[in-house]
Request: fold
Amino acid sequence: MSQARQHLPLSSGVNPNNPATTPSNSTGPTDHNSMLANDETVATSNSNTPEDSEIRTNAQVIVVADESLKQEQQLCAQAETKVRELESRLGNVTAKWKRTANELNKVISQTQVFKQITDEELKIMAEQLRYEISNFAHQYFSESYEVKSKKSLRKPVYERYMPRMHGLFLSEKETCPLAIKAFMWKFLQDLVFDRFQWAGDASKPMDDMWYFFDSNGAASAEESQTSLETIKKRQIWRVNTTHLILDQIRDDTRQKYLNKRKRVFIGRIRQVLDWYSSSRDHPYQDRIEDILDIAINLDKTVCLQASKVSWVLYEEPTEAMRRYENEERIVHCPSMLRRGRPNGEDFDVESMLLTKEVAILPRPALSTRQSSQPRGPGLIHLFF
Reply:
């Protein structure tokens, strides 16, 4: 019994020296393929970590983002192309709009605001006035006169509009009409031109405003750019105000006022000229009224365009006049100047539309001192 006990296993475990006694992981036999499959399963289970899943997710996100970026780039390129096309179209439209706006401004300035009157048209109107005054003076004042008494004459009116040394010219038959012409032009220059008599009741306030502008903004012959711009603004203001007055005040209302003014003017003129006229009949007064109508209409026409028109009765003696410094001269017809264009441009350019007409006679003192000598050159006509 003791020997039998010696051959018994020491334990119920596996004998490492006997492969038959080695236990198996499965209930059935184990082959090589099953072992490989088990190894792959183990490897797969070992690689399914959270880090690997995150990497695969990020990779997928990157691919999707890359595709989206490409699409966005394509859309951006298309949008940029569209923007360039629209900018080009906008530039063309803007250029056309500017051209249209400029053309519209020109049309407005030329047809609705500024009256486009040429130099030749102004000259024709001024020459008509010259002719009427000259014809009037020669028709009714063709004799020489000597005023016996001036007490009944209103000296302020008489001395204000009669030329200096007028007695010398009135005493000569040939020169008497010249003194009358000088008187009429001085009267028109003071009381008609730039005085807005055509404006009816609005003439007085407009005249006051214009006098304020003119006295505070008068510029010399050598204009600065600022002064030229001031003249332009002043002239354009006059054009716009003229249109406003003509639109807002009825013609019959303005004419009623104008008729009153003309009666006053005719009375003042006759206070002086009746002393020298060879005829005091009704046509005499009608001719004065005709002259006033032409002058007032000329002034209104000038106010409807933007250039500056001025009349010059007196100037500094020129070199041509110094030859006759011992004689008396009389400007019996003023020069007509125009600065700028009728549309309100080029105020740095001044042109002379009509020259002045000057007559010269020897002074009486000179003739008395040299009574034994010839009277002199007699009547001399100069044009400046």
In short: Strands lie at 308-312, 327-333, 335-339, 350-354, 357-362, 380-383. The longest strand covers residues 327-333. The mean pLDDT is 75.
